[in-house]
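Fold this complex.
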Amino acid sequence: MATSDKPVLLVIGAGAGIGGHVAARFAREGYHAVLARRSDEEGLQRLVAEIEEAGGSATGTLLNASEDGTIEELVEHTEHDVGPIHCALYNLGAQIGNRALHDTPHRTFELGWRLGCFGLFRLAHAAFPAMVGRGHGTLLVTSATAAVRGNEGQHSHAAAMAGRRMLCQTLNAEFAPQGIHVAHVVVDGSVDAPDTLGKLLGDRFEAYKASKGEDGVIDPAALAETYWHLAQQPRNAWTHELDLRPWTDTPWWNDIPIGAIDTGTSDSRGPRSK
Amino acid sequence: MATSDKPVLLVIGAGAGIGGHVAARFAREGYHAVLARRSDEEGLQRLVAEIEEAGGSATGTLLNASEDGTIEELVEHTEHDVGPIHCALYNLGAQIGNRALHDTPHRTFELGWRLGCFGLFRLAHAAFPAMVGRGHGTLLVTSATAAVRGNEGQHSHAAAMAGRRMLCQTLNAEFAPQGIHVAHVVVDGSVDAPDTLGKLLGDRFEAYKASKGEDGVIDPAALAETYWHLAQQPRNAWTHELDLRPWTDTPWWNDIPIGAIDTGTSDSRGPRSK
Amino acid sequence: MATSDKPVLLVIGAGAGIGGHVAARFAREGYHAVLARRSDEEGLQRLVAEIEEAGGSATGTLLNASEDGTIEELVEHTEHDVGPIHCALYNLGAQIGNRALHDTPHRTFELGWRLGCFGLFRLAHAAFPAMVGRGHGTLLVTSATAAVRGNEGQHSHAAAMAGRRMLCQTLNAEFAPQGIHVAHVVVDGSVDAPDTLGKLLGDRFEAYKASKGEDGVIDPAALAETYWHLAQQPRNAWTHELDLRPWTDTPWWNDIPIGAIDTGTSDSRGPRSK
Amino acid sequence: MATSDKPVLLVIGAGAGIGGHVAARFAREGYHAVLARRSDEEGLQRLVAEIEEAGGSATGTLLNASEDGTIEELVEHTEHDVGPIHCALYNLGAQIGNRALHDTPHRTFELGWRLGCFGLFRLAHAAFPAMVGRGHGTLLVTSATAAVRGNEGQHSHAAAMAGRRMLCQTLNAEFAPQGIHVAHVVVDGSVDAPDTLGKLLGDRFEAYKASKGEDGVIDPAALAETYWHLAQQPRNAWTHELDLRPWTDTPWWNDIPIGAIDTGTSDSRGPRSK
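Structure:
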């Protein structure tokens, strides 16, 4: 029996960055947020408490998403005991920093895939039947630049995220006509996320943010507005993919200007003229 | 001297579809909408009247955007006599239906470029200096599937829209760091637009819409919500490109299922397994 | 001790289609071909015999590429006992036909990834160090339309092939400057491959080929010419990605014409005017 | 009456770089090359002489391709008086170096389109009917990175080249099934082309080439091999698009490594982890 009449937002990967802010945004609109993350019970309860203090409703659970059965059980439990999952957010990252091939062991590459791609497949497997039964549902997928191009050192991350992106396309092809909105969000800039980027950079995090200048790092609360907008689009006008980045960030398809020789070529790209 | 303290939305291509609905949406939020379209003074005044009846503010003008000087004068007049253009919407279409190469004369191809690509360049040329001076501005560009792939019969349209898309990228590269948000919206489905699709299909328009099923045609009011959202994104999280289509429409990158032989191949795409 | 002074081509996925024809093409130019495939010892020996009858040099082995250690041992054995791997061809398919999500079990999705993506990672891991040591090498990767877009029913295949494609980009980024040419070949049409498409279609294979018309199915010998060309490109002009299809096949980015209503729209794609 | 029984290669944009080398390569295989370029009669006659000294056959003409009627007359004259155009190469560049928007006048933008896009449309218009009549033909199109992404300062070039690319797709969609092979070659690196890059860089050309390192600039003779290969592909296995660059060049979709902070993020790209 559901504990609530509220529609449910299920967040896989609920840190203090995107996951937590999307949860808070949906909770503000009357959703019950179910927050799942791998570790840090204290941080998890802080997110739940913040949502409740703002008048919203949320519950949280620690979960090792790379382990078989975990996502599946959470979905079943949520649907059965909490309420219908109207929207699911797959927000797990798989970034491990830049690693040369010889420094990317088989198990690292496989774990990248388990978190970056397979977990999303498992979530869809578990959550879509009930959504199809209800005739509607939304799957929001946080993604990264690595989903659209493979940079040096990103073997594990790029292969996983490309699979994630293409899986969003196959899911959309099968399930959009059944009422499920799948949206793939290419986050092409650094996010002010203390639990991920913050932990990776440690002491250098504040200096890094300062180096990006004013509004040079994505505010996860701003991202959450766009996620909310996507979930509100009526089915006659669904967005499947969009990108986001700070105003001062070079999009992934552009070069960082190097200003070497300021001219161009007739045949092709030359110095600075790509 | 400006006639109003309101921020201005300038719409190039203000029919009863996307252009008119975006104008109404922004007017509802306190913008003064300047509507420009090629013909149909009566239809134009109807849009203005509707906005005013809803408590908003708008003015309209007929304009041949393919003629040198027209967009330029409108921008200058608006900035000088109406108010600062905070947001411009370039919404001119260049679709002429499917035409074989031999049925696409030189002047048709050139006109497609003048409306589909050159007009946007001219608008940016005219409107961006003042935006840069103010440190902010938004350029919303309606675009089409033809901007990302060239289908049979679309010589003029695809070449023009591809130029439009790439121009959005070059404008973004130069002007995003100067505070101007450029967004390219790939409308990948039919819009319930009486002035464009409606006129092309004529008597068949209602039957066509019915054939697409429930919510099978994009409601321009729904599109307008997404345009409004784009214009509201803070500069730390700007979207440059997104797509939209009805839930039942096959995205451009997918095949329309033909169901011939339901199998696949190991080497490559086979029947129905692309 | 190497058995031969010849440069070696290593083929992972050596059926009677692309793999066998590329092997024969390289053998004709003086390469020793090492052919590896999962099953059919008789078919394998037939390929070896054909190459030898034509005056070339080849050896073959059965290999379960999805099993840890198999590719690794083959590479080590080849480098040690046969000769330096100048070129490796990763030609394993991962197509299982169209399957709805509920008909795509977890292990199927995982196997798709093991064959479609992880095996390529393992091959690069095993083969690149020696190539880097020699200052040159080539990795040819057969790929499919599913690497660039996800169609209905292709969950496993598309997620795996997208990972394969992006992995080619990360490998290229790290290893091109070390002298290794990585080329990703998007085969966007049906191949006349008796061991894969032929087995999938069975009795219908000949009828299927006939239905495609004259030159309507890719001849693997023609593909082999392009693979050979790629391997011959000097390092000042390397191709990383190309596509191929028969003249009568609709490219993946185009619609199959449906001819419903022959017109277009101003706002966007309309009937037949994408 | 044709002056020759040889098949004809028509080159629009025949400088000492790609155009001249492709002409020489085809002439070596028995084609008569018709070379057209805007200026430098002496340079043109040198190319013709070199081809003839190598035992080949060629003629040359100066031509202002941006002027209406010029390409059309050349095609008609060639078909009527020289021989059937089996292959046409559109090799005109439209690069003008990096220019800010305010430094890109309307006429510059228009000229970019006339050379980069409209000229190709006119060539297809003029040359395709005879090819269709013969049931075969090849159109090779040299293109640039600007066709696939718009970088800062490239307003004119990118908008023109994007139109060129999409036009290749629409031409392919209509004419591939009629036997015409259209190939779009994305040259993603600097070419050792004295007439274009050489003239732009002037005195700095040799220093620039030296700065790129060994084999760091594309040899147009190497490019010509790939163009020749494309023209030889049988119609069951046609390539529509490929890219090329030197081994040491960063592909357009990758960042130039900046090495600032060597880590990554979970949410998205972080420093050096795009």
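The domain at 8-263 of chain B is CATH 3.40.50.720 (Rossmann fold).
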